[in-house]
Amino acid sequence: MTSPPIVLRLSGITKRFGPLVANDSISLTLYEGEVLALLGENGAGKTTLMNILFGHYVADEGSIEAFGQPLPPGSPRAALAAGIGMVHQHFTLADNLSVLDNVAVGTEPLWRPRSDRAAAKAKLLDLARRFGLEVRPDAPVGDLSVGERQRVEILKALYRDARVLILDEPTAVLTPQESASLFDTLRRLTADGLAVVFISHKMNEVFAASDTVAVLRGGRLVATRRTAATDREELAELMVGRALKPPTPAPLEPGEPVLTLSGVTVGSGHGRPLLDAVDLTVRRRQIVGIAGVSGNGQTALAELVSGLIHPESGTMALKGEAIGSAGPAEMVRRGVARIPEDRHAAGLVGAMAVWENLIAERYHDRAFQRFGLIRRGAARAYAEEVIAAFDVRCPGPDARTQLLSGGNMQKLILGRTLAHGPDLILASQPTRGLDVGAVSYVHGRLLEARAAGAGVLLISEDLDEILALADGITVAYHGRLTPVLPHGRVSVRQLGLLMAGHWEILPEIVDAA
Amino acid sequence: MELFQTILDILVSAAFWTAVLRIATPYILGTLGELLCERAGVLNLGIEGIMTLGAMAGWMAVYQGADLWTGVLVAALCGGLMGLLHATLTVPLGLSQHVAGIGVTLLGTSLSYFVYRLVLPQASTPPTVEPFQPLDLPGALAQTPMTYMALILVGVVAYVLYRTPVGLAVRMVGENPAAAEAQGLSVTAVRVGAVVAGSALMALAGAFLTLSAFNAFFFNMVNGRGWICIALVVFASWRPGKALLGAVLFAAFDALQLRLQQVAGGVLPYQLFLMMPYLLSILALVLVARRASYPRALMIPYRKGER
């Protein structure tokens, strides 16, 4: 049997950012009709490598060949012309423009006197139908859910007749059913002769979808394997360099309620409410997981518990005390610790020093200020403590926060929120975009806090995470929450159905429980 | 009550609307120019200086013997050059758009006065040229060709922005340059192009002042019109049609206060009337612009491959 034709050949790619070697002489080959998984921890250089391939970065050394032709470096236009399409981890879409605009921009000759929107729309809808990627061409991208945006990103590449599709962390935002359908889509694409590279740090995705897996660690390609000829343990060891064991939550007896929501409605002003008559109780020594596809009220719930928005009707109580319209500072004072959904936007100030971020929630404490002046010495000493206690890898308390990796930023936030023994921890997507090592660290810390008596409200789009940690699971759909279902009494398939809105199956789950 | 009647009388007179369109013309052109720059993500505070230079260059060309339309073209070219300067500083070099813009305004203004004095060292009363004449049409339609050009340009800019590939590219680089780059567009080229074109429009606004509204160039003649255009862009929510509306509204306030000064000038200090258009603009901004969805990448320099 002859092997299929080579579509891409990367040879000796090296890329340095200052002293950091992000890619160290990496060589890879991609064949037609193949799905290659690029597996590795965050900071292993996966995204950098793909950005070089797509022309966002220029490699310091090495060369790329696409379909036998050398690919000019540093030009996305050349990459697109060579048939390479990329779906970025942070979507590159303009929120104020329509889906069609986002897909069509740059595909027509720039000086054509009139855009042919009818033809563009027909082509988009035809692609959407062919590959099962449902979209509304005229909706502004800002109105779409994260899952829908990803579909737009994939369509963007297909619209350009991509023959190689690069996907950066594609399933992070999808339900299990949606992921399965994405993998179906990928299979349909490869059957059509496309080659797919997808970047991942999730083992189950690798086994569900790939033919070949390349493992990166610390900027080096450490191994390439046929997926069928390897197993989870081998890949995990290759990826991390050591063996990891999954978290094992010890069963604990839940204590008194720390957070009680009864009949809370928010955002009913325009159309569907963001939260619709939500009832929820989180007790001490309990982790309640909110499963659901993004855009079903999770953000509003997180903002409600952080004190950023307030119930329009219904009541919220903390440790039995009703909360009126307490703001974020008051909520922090009352023992709510928060791990925000987006650590860059709402968690940390990248341009500020590590120590400044660490005291950001309590700079007004007597410990850190006197007569309105910051006590830098005390703040720095405190920062040193947190850095040591939470194993934050950084040059020191004065380092600029944006230079830290995602995992270390999250440790910094954990240090800030957990150092004071909170009563309620609001963890929104606490491990989104983190690597295996950092994920297991975050999970361990959350379980420790639970054992120490905190209640944890875990909002996650990663079902595996919820299944690994939560004592009780509730599903968010269109602003409503199901009753809390005890862990172990509900299957992944049932959760997926609930996430897609099939709540008619609830009675059978509740009866069985 | 009497004042109300007076205002009503003014509003129904054809002469009033003739004045409104004349006053609105530089605002229409300037706002369109600024809008084009900002849609591509570049704030152009150079507008005041570019308008001054356009006013001077257009007039000077005609004074030196060129015909009026050549003067207009010269003004646009000078504006485009200033735009190229601003774009070079802010797009490939990624400097602060505020600082570069203020620099361009100072340069444009002083350069205009310098060249003017260089050519006409001892003129005490500003020399004049024969300006554009109003078309022979009834009522408020009796405008100079440049006013009609401004009105047509509103449609042209709207068409280009919303109906052509290059307009989509301009909007995309102003919303999300990384996305534009990922679609194979050159963010630098699109932004520089938009700023150059927008600056040329600004210079036309200046040329209107010296070749159509008046017939001479004198110091401080732009007199803050550029800054008003920047506010009008926000008022217009970055849409050409609304820019026209805003410019006409502002001009109407201005024309109204001029007439009220004559009517009620004896009773109230005239400075109060001078203030009126600006006060009303601030009010309109508060009411209209709070919900405006501005171009997301406005004022953010784009550096390729940065992390």
Number of DSSP strands of chain A? 23
Oligomerization state = heterodimer
Task: Quickly count the helices of chain B.
Answer: 12
Number of beta-strand segments of chain B: 0
- The name of the CATH architecture of the largest domain in chain A is 3-Layer(aba) Sandwich
Give the overall pLDDT of chain B as a whole number: 91
Q: Which CATH class of the largest domain in chain A is shown?
A: Alpha Beta
Provide the low-confidence segments of chain A as ranges. none
CATH architecture of chain B: Orthogonal Bundle
The share of residues in helices of chain B is over 70%
Keywords summarizing the entry:
heterodimer; A: 513 residues; alpha/beta; Rossmann fold; 3 domains; seven-stranded mixed sheet; six-stranded mixed sheet; 23 strands; globular; B: 307 residues; mainly alpha; ABC transporter involved in vitamin B12 uptake, BtuC; ABC transporter permease (chain B); ABC_transp_permease (chain B)
What do you see in this structure?
Chain A: InterPro entries: AAA+_ATPase, ABC_carbohydrate_import_ATPase, ABC_transporter-like_ATP-bd, ABC_transporter-like_CS, P-loop_NTPase. Chain A: GO terms for molecular function: ATP binding. Chain A: It comes from Azospirillum isscasi. Chain A: Keywords: ATP-binding, Nucleotide-binding, Repeat, Sugar transport, Transport. The complex is a heterodimer of chains A (about 525) and B (about 300). In chain A, β7 (about 165-170), α6 and β8 form a beta-alpha-beta unit. Chain A folds into 3 domains: about 5-240, 3-Layer(aba) Sandwich (Rossmann fold); about 245-335 and about 420-513, 3-Layer(aba) Sandwich (Rossmann fold); about 350-420, no CATH class. The longest helix of chain A has 16 residues, at about 175-190. Chain A contains 18 helices and 23 strands. Chain A is globular, with a radius of gyration of 24 Å. In chain A, the strands form 5 sheets. In chain A, strands 13, 16, 19, 20, 21, 22 and 23 form a 7-stranded mixed β-sheet that branches. In chain A, strands 6-7-8-3-9-10 form a 6-stranded mixed β-sheet, with helices on both faces. Chain A is an alpha/beta fold and about 525 residues long. The N and C termini of chain A lie far apart (about 55 Å). With about 300 residues, chain B is mainly alpha-helical. Chain B has one domain (about 1-120, about 145-290): Orthogonal Bundle (ABC transporter involved in vitamin B12 uptake, BtuC). In chain B, α3 (about 45-65) packs across α9. The N and C termini of chain B lie far apart (about 65 Å). The interface of A and B includes residues 80, 86, 96 and 108 of A.
